[in-house]
Specification:
The two termini are 25 Å apart. The protein has seven helices and 16 strands. Helix content is 24%, strand content 26%. Strand 1, helix 1 and strand 2 form a beta-alpha-beta unit. The strands form four sheets. Strands 1, 2, 3, 4, 5 and 16 form a six-stranded mixed β-sheet that branches. The chain is of the alpha/beta class. It has two domains: 173 residues, FAD/NAD(P)-binding domain; 90 residues, FAD/NAD(P)-binding domain (3-Layer(bba) Sandwich). This is Thioredoxin reductase. It comes from Clostridium vincentii. Keywords: Flavoprotein, Oxidoreductase. GO terms for molecular function: thioredoxin-disulfide reductase (NADPH) activity.
Length: 284
Amino acid sequence: MDKRYDIAIVGTGPGGLSAALNAKIRNKSFILFGNNNLSSKVQKAPKINNYLGFSSVSGKELGESYGNHIKEMGIEITEERINNIYAMGEYFTLMVNEKAYEATTVILATGVEFSKPLVGEIKYLGRGVGYCATCDAPLYKGKIVTIISSNAEGEEEANYVSELASKVYYIPLYKGEYNLNEGILIVNDKPIEVLGESKVNKLILKNSEIETDGIFILKDAIPPSQLVPGLKEDDGHIKVDRLMATNLNGCFAAGDCVGKPYQYIKAAGEGNIAALSAVKYLNK
């Protein structure tokens, strides 16, 4: 860990990008975590009619505008997945595999996870079910591991785990070409239920079942309470006030992760507010 940032922003949708722009304008040191495939959800929208200043713009065009604006402002995206964020009192520690970052404030703009947990997923969390394969892979040396991934980022984690585990099953919840190490078994089936006794021992799928020692579920968005221990939720969303402040001092949130309506312009506005609130907190 080289430095402590003023603000760490997690997410590169409209909320996170808007927060980054305002952090830059206010001359604060910040780091933005996400990916350069800017807001894939925005890109899929055929037409957007309610974004002020853009008449009948397509999602692709709006996404390109986001990218151009970020580039013009000299804002870089750190393409690393945050696995946990811990409130340390005066600052926050953000964990990325074996590495850690520190920031005085945090803005969460992680989107919302629409998929329901598997039957048994929450029950066996920490007892064979996890959300970060590279974090816990050493625990499964010589054992059987199953990885369920919502996107291609899971392939890298599966390849890492395959170097330690005796067998790796990979269940992709997306279409495409898979860049996986030899020996990883691809299972094109829908996961239904996690079974076990004191720990996980089986995954039930729609048309088959797998005996396994561990299951990693790599989602597009980690549930907020799992990402940030102690964070208060309200009906599956991060609980915030009108200044986008959460119950943790110095932690703010914006966008879909704080609740409906799931609108791009709402998320961008909340990102603006979250950044201004973080700046005010820092200036105190």
